[in-house]
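Recap from last week: sequence in, structure out.
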Amino acid sequence: MIEIVEEEEEVSRGARIKVIGVGGGGGNAVNTMISAGLTGVEFISMNTDFQDLRRSLASKRFQLGSQLTKGLGAGANPEVGREAALEDRDRIAELVVGADMVFVTGGMGGGTGTGAAPVIAQVARECGALTVAVVTRPFHFEGKRRRRQAEEGIEALTSNVDTLITIPNQRLVSMASEKTSMKEAFRLADEVLLQAVKGVSDLINFNGVVNVDFADVRTVMGSKGVALMGVGSASGEHKTVEAAQRAISSPLLDDVSIVGATSVLINITGNNGLTMYEMHEASSLIQEEAHEDAEVIWGWVTDESMEDESRVTVIATGFEETRGILQPQSIERRVNERVARGTGMGRSRGRELHSGIDRMYEDYDIPTFFKHAD
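Predicted structure tokens:
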């Protein structure tokens, strides 16, 4: 049995953020984040499969339901995954207690992730943490039964988290070429979680000239229906407005957009050369899509290592209902109009923004789109 490995990671001295990978898919996502060098959060892997858990890079690993499953996994049965988590409910609480924010990630449709994730999320929420679940829906070729189990798992998660993001793996098919490997396709889905956690941890852990703290994040993400989070970066003459464009458009949208949001948090990061005009244009682009009376929390962080690059993080909540997708072409048109108004150049001298949208696929500047529990 793999017990808790008592190794301390470099964590924030302020808000404590924990990321829990549940099952094989969740463990892979955590490994991707660790390999990417993400700091400021604490990683935990939980699984019923002893062999798979041994491959985890997390400093804290915990075997779920050792008495029930004997370390042999859940056999694609969500009920076994659920019972395994219930068997160790008290130990799970010991792991998450003291966290201000907990991300729970896993693949929906199998046994451990589908069954155990709702229990783990419930425990985290009961311990007082702002709880966000980030899970994947299966590919169509995985079969109707697995897709049905995934939907049942997502439904169970909804009532046990503050916020839920679902990543539809099927959309990776349309994004990938015929030569894209399955490993690379799954890595792209894992990058969504990486951007989500990095976006929030950077907001909390980096002191800004105009600072955004954890209380601001909790205010915006607190029980307000559908929510959107996006992180975009760009370089060049119009880098900040292009970064804002990328933050609110994505090839992995799950049928929501920023339109009508009543609460918006915007954080802009760049070097000291970032101009007031750039910030105004980027913020205005985002606010124009939100509700006209939206509450806006705005932050600015300087990072000299970024040189000719800007990064924009957006969290938007308070939608009356799930909206249709705001097409990237629509945002592209607005960006070009802004560039033309501000510089008199128009599209002919500006960088082709459509290619900027295409680069989202390459750079993984992928917004994450959340659904809050009621």
